[in-house]
Amino acid sequence: MRYCPRCGGPTGDLPARCAACGYEAFLNPRPTATVIIVRDGRFLAIRRTREPRAGWWDLPGGFCDGFEHPADAAVREAREELGVTVELGESAGMYIGEYDFQGELLPVLECFWFATITGGEIALDPSEGSEYAWLALDDPPEMAFPNMDRVLGRMRLVS
Ligand SMILES: [Zn+2]
């Protein structure tokens, strides 16, 4: 950010306070919600269609909307990306990561849940993924985002 979103005055980098009108902008992480859908020792992975990290294995998930609770966002994202209803299980943790927003690395708060499919058949949204696969929990590939590697590595330790 270089200019105040309220009055257009110059602000400089975040965190910033606009000298003209007093508006303050902070560099807070944006929350994301992701599901680890587990079945028979395997987890569901989607091959990303979009940048960043197009072509990499990803977990179903995405950014929270406005005042949406991350747990609600996790269920919504699974429905949008896979066409299924999921039920969340235990939290798999929260991690701070970074996300490339059009060349700018910004902080994200990545929230993970274990989940199971409770309704519907998988029909992958092609704008999200080119294919999906059930991958072995005890031998996960390198995933699109480092915290996915961390959370899957943690699962390997506890499973
Ligand atoms: Zn201002």
Give the mean pLDDT: 92
What does the main sheet amount to? 7 strands, mixed
How large is the count of helical segments? 2
- How much strand content do the residues show? 35-45%
The structural class is alpha+beta
Q: What is the count of structural domains? A: 1
Question: What fraction, in percent, of the residue positions are helical?
Answer: 10-25%
The general outline is: elongated
The CATH topology label is Nucleoside Triphosphate Pyrophosphohydrolase
CATH class: Alpha Beta
* CATH architecture classification name: Alpha-Beta Complex
For the secondary structure, the number of strands is 9
CATH-assigned homologous superfamily = Nucleoside Triphosphate Pyrophosphohydrolase
Low-confidence stretches: none
- Which sequence of SSEs, written as H and E, runs from N to C? EEEEEEHEEEH
Named once each, the bound ligands are: zinc ion
N- to C-terminal separation?
A: 44 Å
Radius of gyration, whole Å: 18 Å
What does this protein structure show overall?
The protein is an alpha+beta fold and 159 residues long. The chain has a single domain (28-158), classed as Nucleoside Triphosphate Pyrophosphohydrolase (Alpha-Beta Complex), CATH 3.90.79.10. Helices cover 16% and strands 42% of the residues. Strands 3, 4, 5, 6, 7, 8 and 9 form a seven-stranded mixed beta sheet that branches. Strands 1-2 form a two-stranded antiparallel ribbon. A hairpin with a 2-residue loop joins strand 7 and strand 8 (104-119). The model has no long low-confidence stretch (mean pLDDT 92). The structure holds zinc ion (ZN).
